[in-house]
Amino acid sequence: MVTVIEGTTLTPEGPQPLRLGIEGERFTDAPRGQADISFDDGYILPAALDIHVHFREPGNEQKETLRTGTRSAAFGGVALAVDMPNTQPPTSTVDAYEDKAQRIDQNAHIDVGVWAGVTPEGACFELGDQATGYKLYAGPTTGDLLMDDPDSWEDAVERVAPTGRPMAVHAEHPAMLHDAAESITDWEDPSSHLLSRPGLAEARVFESLAPIANDVDAHLHGAHVSHPASAKVLHKHGLTSEVTPHHVLLDSNDVERLGAFAKVNPPVRSPETRQALMQMLREGILMCVASDHAPHTRHEKGSGFQKAPSGMPGVETLFPLMLAKAFRDEIPIERVLEACCSAPADVMGLPAGRLDPGCWANLVHVPDEPVSIQGDALHSKCGWSPFDGFEGVFPSALMVRGSWVVERSRLVGNAGDGRFVGGPGWE
Ligand code: DOR
Ligand code: ZN
Questions:
Q1: Among this protein's residues, is 179 annotated catalytic?
Q2: What pLDDT does residue 139 have?
Q3: Residues 6+ apart with CB under 8 A from 130
Q4: Do residues 296 and 308 lie in contact, with contact meaning Cβ atoms separated by under 8 Å?
Q5: Is residue 310 lining ligand 1, measured as CB closer than 6 Å?
Q6: What pLDDT is attached to residue 198?
Q7: Which fold has domain 41-350+358-411?
Q8: Which pTM does this prediction carry?
């Protein structure tokens, strides 16, 4: 049985009528005749994929859980998220990986993949092509997964190549961060964080790893790119990249305003850097947008600048913020749909992110006007957002693989409706 949905979609040429067929979990050609579901207002768009989130389970359930994180994602129009391995225990062994996959199958409202954490022993590589992807922490941040010896990075690139899976890299050269930290005298001053984590420490990691990745045919993916020099290196080597909404929308002025609530690794930088990153996103030099949803409780964030952990929530605001920018003509809608939907699907090698026959039937219905974001009305367990007062276009409906998860702005799906999405070897 084919279900037919009709309405209006957004294209580079403006709004256009749309008819979609859905059979089981996938889009198919729409047969002639009356539609089963008709949207008279707003727009039908592909749902987003957020390939960089920290849902915190297991081990840090006071910040977020798979249930609350995927619920928040659903209200933001995200059909699939890929979770980071810096949980407790870290997702760096086959056992920890299988445990997380099982938790996802039992608790998730949307589909969730998992980045396996690379450690010096490389236990995760036993997963081969079963892992959704791999994550290399070439820089210190929340959790215990730092690989601080640059020689070990090269080994990781060589070991990931035969798996065919992408390896996301958190790039902040440890030795360069160490040197930069020497000059800091007052760690309670919010500007200390940016001074201690310079952008060139990021570019340096990508400059050394990109040629090696090309040599051994490894798919390296630049996580949360925060400096134009890094974006250029990745682009030059044909490697994939993501930028976060906070790196294109927030800068050092927001750190003054929000204090530790805007403390994040890598840091948000100057207004000029922010604008340069936004321009590279417009041009497609930065390929994807991913949220780096990294919730911490208000209490943890309010415990003094130096002590506060780095990271901010964002899975629910990722797509709404970018759509609002498109509605205000600050970025072409086709770039937003690429960056939030089709490009991340391509990075992960998934049949998603497009309203095309054969793709998973993941879609959103959105209104035609943005609203003002209110952090405490969002659905993450942490209960706050750095984007309070920014405009967002929030979906009123979300379909994931042919089933409604959100309808009329209400959650209608159940925990466990989402499923774990691994690499091709998982099935
Ligand atoms: O600011 C950050 N927070 N950056 C990261 O890389 C990790 C994240 C977290 O897990 O809190
Ligand atoms: Zn992250």
A1: no
A2: 87
A3: 422, 423, 425, 426
A4: yes
A5: yes
A6: 95
A7: TIM Barrel (3.20.20)
A8: 0.98
